[in-house]
Amino acid sequence: MAKPYVSVVIPVYNEQDNLETLFSRLTAAMDRTGKTWEVLFTNDGSRDRSGEMLKEFHKRRPKQVRVIDFNGNFGQHMAIMAAFERVRGDVIVTLDADLQNPPEEIPKLLAAIEAGHDSVGGYRKNRQDTFFRKYASRIINGIRAKVTRIQMRDQGCMLRAYRKSIVEAIVASGETSTFIPALAYSYSADPAEVEVEHAARSAGESKYRLYDLVRLNFDLMTGFSVVPLQVFTVFGIVVAVLSLLFVVFLLVRRLIVGPEAEGVFTLFAILYFLVGIAIMGLGIIGEYIGRIYKEVRRRPRFVVRAVHEVLDE
Length: 313
Prior knowledge:
Blueprint: E1 6-12, H1 16-33, E2 37-43, H2 50-60, E3 65-70, H3 76-84, E4 91-94, H4 106-114, E5 119-125, H5 131-148, E6 160-163, H6 164-173, H7 180-187, E7 191-197, H8 210-224, H9 227-257, H10 264-297, E8 304-308
Parallel strand pairs: 1-2, 1-4, 2-3, 5-7
Antiparallel strand pairs: 3-8, 4-6, 5-6
């Protein structure tokens, strides 16, 4: 087979209600580009009919559709990484299966890549999400920019394009817990962003619960910066100095005023505050230790049950 110019990577988890529409719109959009292309679907342990539907898509277009079938649910980013290991295109596009980012927007990303950028992120126009998700995302984007210095206008948009060299660097990193857009940004010499349309989910439900979003952002913060540790260290030094000054103040007061029974509740409040800070610090340290633990145990990041593809004429 001729090497495709574009590889579209789509992770799939329980998206049976969206897949048929996605496939028809994606194939039409890619055919209109006039470029050679392939699409790699990763079935991330779906429990509905998604796996069977993806195999049917492969039968319809065996030379363009490739399906990676996971042995279980390993998460969106691992599903993308598995496809990244197998892509053949010069340009790789990532796209979610929920149709919130229209596949018709892919040519915008390709145009930016062809203009010379090596990594292109999409940011959602008129984002069709709940009030909480939109504004929580803005806050997290701001914190992430300060902590990691990774500048992404919309880190939650997975409609993105990369040159093959960026994807190869991501695969070579071999990390077990990572955030692909941030990792790509750190490897890019000339990143860019383009505005893309965004639609409300027409079927199914979001696979990211509140805990998953928190977990993802912990990975982002601890995976790309040691600022949380440094901030906590500086805060600890400041608290230690203030505590020392407070002890000196109490000693001087005792010498001048004499023994007092007042202020017990104030001291308890200060104690509880310091204990809370200490527990938070242990949590931050635990995040970094947990990442080290995941890396050193060297377990497989995912298990591929089967790959459905046609690579030779």
